[in-house]
Amino acid sequence: MLARQYLSFPWSSARFCHGFTNRTLATPDRYLSSTSSTIFAHHQHTMAAPVSIAIPASTKKISVPTGLFINNEFVPSVDSKDTIQCINPATEEVICSVVAASEKDIDVAVAAAREAFKTTWGKNVTGFERSRLINKLADLIERDAQELAELESLNNGKPVKIARDSDIADSVQCLRYYAGWADKILGQAIEVDNKTKFAFTRHDPIGVCGQIIPWNYPINMW
């Protein structure tokens, strides 16, 4: 018997983008880069134009990318000119429009993710390194919890306090939980009522997977 641990790569945010496109392969640390002026800022020279969104509680404005996030870059679609509007449910005002991905965008995203899995994240990266990177992501989310909660609230109408203290906090706890397991390379032997068989569990990264992110818990479920 084989118990497998499923991993996906690269991660994507349904809050800021709806697809992917292919870029030069990045190292894991590039996926977790950040600056003080932009939440989870990345190399933006090829991305669609970002929008500036005001954060009432902090009187700051945050630059939010609107392109497709692939291989550590926010970029335009390969062939789609369609966009998706993000609407504030409280005021029915358009917060911003994000690029709508096409089938070709998804194809190149999967190809980029598979290449990354073979080189910078999967079996060639130690559990200790994966743990460090996951904890680093948790640190960044925790640092920007208020701003992320404000963005969540604008997009789905949830009270900021609930978004911050439940959704964002749960996301951080979840990441830290799995970061703690990443370097625990342990299996388990299981007794079976058969002297000719031996059963055991093994945590084995499978590869790339897709996920549909819900509108009401986007960061938490991502």
UniProtKB/TrEMBL annotation:
Molecular functions per Gene Ontology: aldehyde dehydrogenase (NAD+) activity
EC number(s) reported in the record: 1.2.1.3
Key words, A-Z: NAD, Oxidoreductase
The organism's place on the tree of life at top rank: Eukaryota
InterPro entries per record: Ald_DH/histidinol_DH (IPR016161), Ald_DH_N (IPR016162), Aldehyde_DH_dom (IPR015590)
Record domain Aldehyde dehydrogenase: where: 80-221
Broad class of enzyme this protein falls into: oxidoreductase
Cited PANTHER family: ALDEHYDE DEHYDROGENASE-RELATED (PTHR11699)
Family: Belongs to the aldehyde dehydrogenase family.
Protein name: aldehyde dehydrogenase (NAD(+))
Organism of this sequence: Ganoderma sinense ZZ0214-1
